[in-house]
Specification:
- The chain has one domain.
- The chain contains one helix and five strands, in the order E-E-E-E-H-E.
- Strand 1 and strand 2 form a beta hairpin.
- It is globular.
- The relative contact order is 0.23.
- The model has no long low-confidence stretch (mean pLDDT 81).
Length: 70
């Protein structure tokens, strides 16, 4: 689950990029990323995430979302 305002865009070659609120590419299919998860939410949101196996994405501070280089 991405933060509100993030969008996915399928490119002509079939890859998908994720854009942040400002339109910057923050992720691309075929690459590996390390994401520091935020605390698990409680209430209905947390229950839904548990049911579908989702993990919350951080608010994408630069140090929380980085491409892993081989």
């Amino acid at each position: 689950m991405w933060p509100v305002g993030y969008t996915g865009l399928r490119l002509a070659g079939g890859q998908v990029v994720v854009l942040d609120r400002s339109g910057n590419v923050v992720a691309t299919t075929g690459k590996e990323y390390a994401i520091a998860p935020p605390p698990h939410p409680g209430g209905e949101a947390g229950q839904l995430m548990d049911r579908i196996g989702a993990i919350a994405a951080p608010d994408c501070y630069p140090w929380d979302f980085e491409e892993v280089t081989p």
